[in-house]
Amino acid sequence: MSSSVLELPETLRLESHPFARNQCTSTTTFSPGSTIISIPALVSVLLPASKGHRCDACNRRPSDQPLKRCTGCASYWYCDAACQIFHWKTEHRKMCKDYNAYCASPRFQSLQEHEKMDALLLSAFCAHMALLLEPDENPSVSTFLSLLPGPTEIEPPPRCGGYAFSADQLKSFYSRFGNNNFSMHSHFNVFGHGIFPLASRLFNHSCMPNAAAKYVLTSSQSVRMEVVALRKIMPGEEICVPYLDPALLQTRAQVFELTYGFTCKCTSCTFLGSVGRIPNPPKDGLELKSISTALEHFVREMGEVSVFQTGRSEGFPPQLLCVLHETFLCDLSERFSAASHEGLYDVALEAGTTLTALYRLIYPPNYPQIGMHLLEVAKTAWNYSVQTDPTDKALNNLAQEALTLARSILTVFGSEGDEYDGPLVEIQTLSNLLSPLD
Ligand SMILES: *[C@@H]1O[C@H](CO)[C@@H](O)[C@H](O)[C@H]1NC(C)=O
Ligand SMILES: *[C@@H]1O[C@H](CO)[C@@H](O)[C@H](O)[C@H]1NC(C)=O
Ligand SMILES: *[C@@H]1O[C@H](CO)[C@@H](O)[C@H](O)[C@H]1NC(C)=O
Ligand SMILES: [Zn+2]
Ligand SMILES: [Zn+2]
Ligand SMILES: [Zn+2]
């Protein structure tokens, strides 16, 4: 299939790549925060935890009114008639009658939770295909079929609804799901899985991505993915998004190999590959403390560009190698959330400050997770000052600084998902509580 079939905006170009299939490069300059492309879902499925809380058509969670049930199956929920009609025409008509029996069937029940999602996504995909008047003419479908299948062949799960697809066709669809499905999120809380063929076709992964995906929910429409520039992108630069959390410093390589069948060659992986063996972090509290202090110092002095972006390990202190062990980050975030949960805000703030430094080292600038974390740090500092001394200037300033940085980072990414709440709203609320910085 030739790439000329793809409908691309003029600002993007799909080029041949020295060793990969294609690369998507920019033909223009994108400023941080600009939308590179907006792509509708071909199909999407809600997680079980979101069923009944979000509309099955547009995936919104209305704040002002309860969802209405499909009277046919009583298992699908919608904002209103417009959403229901949209979903009926594009998918649900083929699934409504069989859905409950299917979900209760021993074959479906014997599947693991993630396999159930896969089975529902496959069912929704087949239903959607069966309802398209001319599936062969549909650009989203042909883009989906042009995607590379996953590295391993698995038998497709049972489906809901009766459609005329051959076993080979089903296998061919299903083999493209595993490495081409996206977790959709609202304020970084995952609510479902979706297939966005053009996004899969265009954007390769990087652990130091210059762009990231967010999800926009609009009444009686499919979810849209918006790919947002995290920093300035120059003409000719390849645009990459993260397929998984880059903070999985050790396990990510395995996932790339097993799920996507490639070895990542980004600057972050180059850096990690060049530092040699990564030791376990020390168990001793005092040693950990001194390493945390050294990490914070290193990041303060590092400037805007991290060694994870240059890919060069010269000058990286050997003493800090153990912070690159995944357990260091895990333990730190556990300590941060446990301590703030228990009201031990001083302990939490200490862990939170070290975690901020680690995030700035391993994530690209403006990465939304850094902003989300800084918002938590600001809340912790606020809680601490309420608990101890609300007039404490130092705590107030700490909260203000974290909040200012959180706002600038999260404004680049912009709001996603449900529009009536989310981190930008929380930042505004907390900002109103704090006194101005001095
Ligand atoms: C989505 O991809 C993950 C791997 O990243 C896989 O484990 C899961 O089964 C896939 N889900 C669907 C619905 O295909
Ligand atoms: C994505 O990039 C990796 C290297 O980082 C490469 O091995 C892989 O083939 C690329 N994938 C596609 C689909 O171009
Ligand atoms: C702040 O305090 C509130 C109320 O006690 C609590 O619910 C919240 O989890 C705390 N947040 C942080 C980040 O410490
Ligand atoms: Zn809706
Ligand atoms: Zn129904
Ligand atoms: Zn990488």
From TrEMBL:
Coiled coil: none annotated. CDD domains: SET_SMYD. Pfam families: SET. Residues 55-96 form the MYND-type domain. Residues 106-244 form the SET domain. Keywords: Metal-binding, Zinc, Zinc-finger. InterPro entries: H3K4_H4K5_MeTrfase, SET_dom, SET_dom_sf, TPR-like_helical_dom_sf, Znf_MYND. PANTHER family: EG:BACR7C10.4 PROTEIN, HISTONE-LYSINE N-METHYLTRANSFERASE SMYD. This is SET domain-containing protein. It comes from Marasmiellus scandens.
